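Sequence in, structure out.
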Amino acid sequence: MDIKPFLHQHYLLCDEHENQEACCDKCNEKIDGWAFTCESCKFWLHESCASQLLPQSILHPLHSQHCLYLSCNHDYFACDKCFTLARGWTYKCKVCDFAIDLICASSSTTNDQTSMEGSQRSNQSSRKIKHFSHSHVLTPFYYRKAGKDHCSCLWCEKLLSGLSYGCLSDRCRNREVFFHESCLTNMPIAISQQHFHLSHLLRLYLTQREEEHKCNGCKEQCLILEGRYSCQNCEFNLHVCCATFQPSLKYELHNHDLTYFRIKGYKGNLRCKICHEKIPHEDGSNEGVFYACVQCDFYLHLHCLVPFKTKHEYHRHELILTNSVIEDYSDEYYCDICEEERKPRHHVYYCNKCSFVTHIECALNKLVDAKLDHMKLMKRKETNLKNLKIDHFDHEHSLTFYEVIEQNERLLCKACCLKISGQAYACKLCEYYLHKTCTQLSQKLLHPLHPSHALHLVSIRSIFQLRFLCQKCRGCYYDGFAYKCYLCDFVLDVKCATDQEMSENESEMIEETKRQSKLCLFNQKHKLSFINYAPRRKKFRFSQCCEKDLVGPSYRCSDCGYNIHEFCLGFLPEMQLKFHPQHPVHLLYNVRKPCRVCGYSLHATIGYSCGQCDLYLHAVCAKYSAKEQVTKFEVHNHGLSYYRGIIPYSLQNICGECMKRISYTPFYFCPECSDFKLHFKCARIPHSIKSKYHIHPFVLMNNFVEDDSGQYYCDICEEERAPLDHVYYCKQCQGLFVAHIECVLDSVEETTPTTQEAYSNDLPG
């Protein structure tokens, strides 16, 4: 159903505004509160005015089983159609929690390219993940600005872009927990020489239900089942995201450098050492912005420490302390004094006359001496080498060099679970041993069995809790180290991951993933990735070409966002249709046009079109239409083509004989008239028939699959046939002779009486 009128021709942002000078384009009242705005043409609309322009409920073809109701959502959500981040009014199913944004709910957009870019990823897997960085489930989405401010990644603090993950739970509505996909895959499980705790290695732990820990950086509670970096010797803990902060500002009244903190949804109970007020201020703000010395528990409000205005010798104008400055939407922003990269959401000093932007510490001439810090780190490393001691992420105590002369059955390496011999490191107090080679394992590696993401070295005890299954040797392990992909749950035992000798099974797996590279059907600059999809109990992946479940060898274009079976690549880029001899039809993807055969939209599917004649067909419908043979029936002047596709309920598909709707059932259609259709049962196809091409009579079957070869042919015309289509079948030959219906009807010798009752009986098969 079209939403008419659509709110605006451009994409609208939804956010809360206070005392805006702009007026609503509908009621002409001042904007104050939640409203929609267009950044391109300064269009404004009250949220309440927008609701008056939209229908309260719609039926959408992507969720035709239930009605979708207009709902207000001030929190971020991922649209279930295009998988992009959205906010504001949404159409939501009260039964299934299915929700789509206004753009996807409306079909009034006429720009095909815009709709393609917005929804070509609609078949992207919506699999949520559990990651140690956050206590709740993270949902994948493609980032698109949805409010007045851009969202940023909690790990790298850069603006979101491309495929990202976020917590869309109501419990985190004020925190904006978002991550780049690349940041999630690259988070370490141990940090050495962390700025706030240089003395020991910080290891990753999951906070258990019976534990209580506070982050030493921001002083907030560490949430249950959320990761923290911890030194258990010193009882020092850091949230995963607090571990990325670095000291930057020297303060003349304190011995240590101060670190800038900016935390949304801050719930700490700190007080500023200057004004003695709470952080954040008791002004309704839920954001904590402060400077801290983590070592000394020394905290200061930003505005108590940093002057509102300042001057710098590198710039002639006065610089103003500004919330944040984002000149454009890019991946990198720089300070105009030190020319180093800056975080786009951090406070800066800014000259609005010349767009001069600088770090706070650079404007105040209080730069950190990075060389001095580097020298301190080098001295510590030299001391560790002299003492032959190392810190390891999997053990809380330092490990001492230890050489085993004779093998001991009791001494097993905690990494590979093999006997200790030769050079090793040990904590004899805890009877913890590691081969020297196992202490030198790479923290991250790319493996040919999983080339899409890096694998990270993890301890089974700290990450898996109980056990894991190696996806190379299929062994079940209860102890030791493994390499894991956090996003895909792909795991390799450390021995399998580092084994230089390739097994025959692994060679076959690698060959499968290195199939000959193929190019995208629609853009020769894109490459198709080979994927061997395993069968799933819940089938939500389908080929956009044949619209069948994706199982087995398949290809995916990540740039365009479509999946197809390997056998679907046989669809021709150009096709000549018998009923449309004027022009050939060309392959295309994702247009909001109805198919001439089934009447259903080509949105998010592969099809064919003749641009000159405004003719559009699904790829499957075009394949049926391209058949040379048609069947003549008395009820219509032209020959009719058989069709067995997946046609949903539609008011347009009416049988020309019984005048009832056609839905999810085979039918005949007229390629020339396009609007004439006939139920298969109304066509009165003979149940039994004798052809001149075979000695025995044929019986009509629902379908016939004689073997698992994947290739099936008609024994009369010797052309390929679809295994699920109705066919004529010779019972006496036990399936050795099978033919298209139209091929048999063209060679009739005798038939049984054709009555409605004869067909209505259940067909064999």
